[in-house]
């Protein structure tokens, strides 16, 4: 594989096209680092290659290239999952290739994905600095798209396992949302144990905090609730200073977990079992206090999502039919992207046959107009 050592531009003989499975010769020009994670680096780049239909060499992009050390013992789950998923609210993988680093001589896996200009963490921060929140219609559209992506993934049994605002890409000019970072994702098999030390602390479901070995895709729904709450509050809702204190933060909103919760999640749990109720009102009133500036339908949705017991936590399809989203179904529903003088309409209900199957009997409710 020819390489132009440690340069921003290099040519590769074999870049695999994810859609066709064929490999092409390409020149990659990297020009901007857009993300640096625990394991990988994400750079913005353009690719120069010959597209078969017109047979001329052209520059394509921009793309986002995620580079992580190539796995030697087992297949990369991130690549495996991104190769098979195909959904408007999940970042799409366009190409992939392995390349030897000129710095440490190790082989790195490169995932070439469509590039979005921002993520939800930056959007929340942008509005917070102006002392606003993301406008409600945008919040609804983003939440709906995020839940749609979860309906799709959970339908295959795939759990993302690291839902948080920085892993949710957005394009504010089209109010489009796509989940990224499948580095922690896994297909969860029923009754099979998985590591519980996944997910970023503020967004970890309570069952993960107490070390539940057999959890479900409902851990992502907890993350969804934390993300919705963060859009309303402008900051993470549960900011525990240690893994155990995270549970205390949660109990400040939900009350302490029932004793049965600890036993059901993990009979081996030996950590602190919070028992004291830290507020005197009902849980509903506590939600109203904390989300005092949020509309009642949003509070009702959060009450259904932020639930200790994953069996009673809302499912993606029950979230999608919640009244919080009724506005999106109105025929004249339009949003003004940030800074735009003209509104745009969004195509949020273009469900595939597979998604309609997953919705089951709720499909009619979801597709009927609210007017
Ligand atoms: N396709 C993309 N388009 C635009 N930006 C992207 C894209 N993919 C990733 N990013 C940006 O790069 C950041 C890091 O990406 P990613 O989370 O996949 O890497 P990571 O190494 O797993 O990071 P972390 O350890 O922080 O989770 C993201 O938060 C996002 O802002």
Account of the protein in words:
The protein has helices at 77-84, 120-129, 136-155, 206-209, 218-233, 243-254, 259-265, 283-290, 296-305, 316-320, 326-329, 353-359, 362-367; strands at residues 9-17, 23-36, 41-51, 56-69, 93-100, 107-114, 118-119, 158-159, 168-171, 176-179, 186-187. With 371 residues, it is of the alpha+beta class. It folds into two domains: 8-114, Phosphorylase Kinase, domain 1; 118-368, Orthogonal Bundle (Transferase(Phosphotransferase), domain 1). The strands form three sheets. It has a six-stranded antiparallel beta barrel with strand order 1-2-3-4-6-5. A three-stranded antiparallel beta sheet has the order 7-9-10. Strand 9 (168-171) and strand 10 (176-179) form a beta hairpin. Bound molecules: adenosine-5'-triphosphate. Residues 34-35, 37-40, 42, 64, 66, 91, 113-116, 119, 166-167, 169, 180-181, 183 line the site of adenosine-5'-triphosphate. InterPro entries: GSK-3, Kinase-like_dom_sf, Prot_kinase_dom, Protein_kinase_ATP_BS, Ser/Thr_kinase_AS, STKc_GSK3. ATP binds at residue 66. Residues 28-325 form the Protein kinase domain. Pfam families: Pkinase.
